[in-house]
């Protein structure tokens, strides 16, 4: 059995492995809220488990009984797995992400990449974005940021028509928004603002981009700029709770800032007044 065709397939799986009649648990990741992305043939190497996973679809749960030749063989895996053990696995597939096309794309020269059909390029970029989303929700923001940037690098291709450029720009817009949010999570407000403004260059009325820019400016204490961005976002989506709450936060922070400025001024002039 060759694992090579499977090496590009990543999956997130909740699993529990048992010995006997479901009586002895020997491995599990069931307590993990965000199971890590694993590659078949690399992180998951039990032959029977791989065959079973490849028969499943996203969201499906299954029970597998693996005889020794499909599991740990004659030797077992001491001390947890005895020789010639039949094991039972309870699994749930949360997601599948196939990186084969991405891996193949980055093995090409720049000239070869430019020669690919746009449909293929967009698909590779979308897969990279999926990886970024996965790591974002796992709160591994630096890896997510790198994946989003990798997707952007794929979209640097030349377009042959306005229609193709529109497709490229639509994909770029989503990545700019994702990068802006990711940089906010990384507390890099200047970069969050940069990517928010790049999104606005493509869509001046994008409420999400305006909101991200407003958040970034608020973080940097640029209150006037923050108010401008957030007010524009509110005009587009007047009942958006996130936007309205951010404006309330801005008002509170600005009030605190002004009170602090007033107190500093009083402290500066009080010594002069004392010599009246």
Automatic annotation (TrEMBL):
Coiled coil: none
Annotated catalysed reactions: [protein]-peptidylproline (omega=180) = [protein]-peptidylproline (omega=0)
Keyword annotations of the record: Isomerase, Repeat, Rotamase, TPR repeat
E.C. numbers: 5.2.1.8
Protein name: peptidylprolyl isomerase
Single GO BP term: piRNA processing
PROSITE patterns: FKBP_PPIASE
GO MF annotations, alphabetized: Hsp90 protein binding; peptidyl-prolyl cis-trans isomerase activity
Stretches assigned to the PPIase FKBP-type domain: 8-97
Assigned GO CC terms: cytoplasm
Family indicated by similarity: Belongs to the FKBP6 family.
InterPro entries in the cross-refs: FKBP6/shu, PPIase_dom_sf, PPIase_FKBP_dom, TPR-like_helical_dom_sf
PANTHER family assigned: INACTIVE PEPTIDYL-PROLYL CIS-TRANS ISOMERASE FKBP6
Pfam families xref list: FKBP_C
SUPFAM superfamilies the record matches: FKBP-like, TPR-like
Principal EC category: isomerase
